[in-house]
Amino acid sequence: APLLSVQGVTLRYRTKDHLITATYRVSFDVYRSDRFVIVGPSGCGKSTLLKAVGGYLPTVEGQIRLNNQEIARPGPDRVMVFQEFDQLLPWKTVKENVVFALTASGRLERKAAEEKAMHYIDKVNLSGFADSLPHTLSGGMKQRVAIARGMAMEPEILLMDEPFAALDALTRAKMQEELLQLWEDTRFTVLFVTHSIPEAVRIGSRILLLSPHPGQVRAELNSDGIDA
Ligand code: ADP
Ligand code: ADP
Predict the structure, then answer these.
(1) CA 171–ligand 1 middle distance (angstroms)
(2) Strand 18-30 to strand 4-14: parallel, antiparallel, or no bridges (unpaired)?
(3) H/E element, 207
(4) Residue 192 forms beta bridges with which residues?
(5) What ligand 2 atom has the least distance to the C-alpha of 141?
(6) 223 CB less than 6 Å from ligand 1?
(7) How far, in Å, from the CA of 139 to the mean position of ligand 2?
(8) By the 8 A CB rule, do 37 and 193 touch?
């Protein structure tokens, strides 16, 4: 059975006078240890899909199931890594950023959290920077910390939203390579979103190409705010 099953999912945003259909009847299955990539042009609904898998958006139609349980809200079984470099707490060291993520949920004691944090910081080759503050690191290094933090939480699936998009081309290529090595080592399940087809081909074990225009892109709302 798939780890994650997305079946016939439609997602919408409601603005003042429109319903915007961000994804229309999208289906895909992610199996354990897949490197599943969703690729498509800007605005095709990639981030929206990832947010829904994260549990941050309700589905209008269709179902999202993880381990055969319908996803209702965010949970530690799905951890997100974003594009931005500022997803780390700037006043905490690399190690403390990871430790904080592990202890905040109350699931781990400090000692165990520290050990786990160092294990994953080492996996992204940053053990020499465990006591550094984020602003002293390069963009690529910050993203590696964010990946280490995500992996340390040992989610069922790591959700990566354009994690390398803000990096220069050379660093980006290095990070793709490093992610693949990390995957060889750990076989974690990853759902990765990108607008770059070369990146999708490089990273993905399976690839879903989303069309730029979902069906029913816009529905006018009448004066009562109801789908007209
Ligand atoms: P992608 O990640 O592929 O670039 P998004 O999921 O961000 O695409 O956006 C899909 C569609 O939903 C776009 O048409 C976008 O303009 C729209 N959209 C995204 N976020 C919002 C929002 N908060 N409110 C209204 N429309 C939104
Ligand atoms: P960018 O600045 O392009 O994001 P990188 O993340 O590749 O670049 O790293 C920038 C600098 O930091 C490079 O000079 C690199 O040698 C150094 N660096 C990166 N990771 C490590 C590491 N694990 N150990 C030592 N130095 C590192």
Answers:
(1) 27
(2) antiparallel
(3) strand 206-209
(4) 37, 160
(5) 6
(6) no
(7) 9
(8) yes
Residue 220 neighbours by CB under 8 Å, 6+ apart: 17, 18, 228
Structure tokens at 173: 């290529």
DSSP 8-class letter at 187:
-
Ligand 2: which residues within 6 Å by Cβ? Answer: 125-126, 128, 138-141, 167-168, 171, 174
Residue 168 CA: which ligand is closest? 2
- Residue corresponding to tokens 């690529």: 140
Query: 0.90 exceeded by the pTM?
Result: no
pLDDT (tens digit per residue) in 70-124: 998 999 999 999 998 889 999 999 999 999 999 997 889 999 999 999 999 999 9
Please check whether residue 46 is in contact with residue 195, taking contact to mean a CB–CB distance below 8 angstroms: yes
Cα of 22 from ligand 1 centre, angstroms: 6
Q: Are 210 and 26 in contact, with CB atoms under 8 Å apart? A: yes
Closest listed residue to residue 4, CA positions, set 39, 53, 59? 53
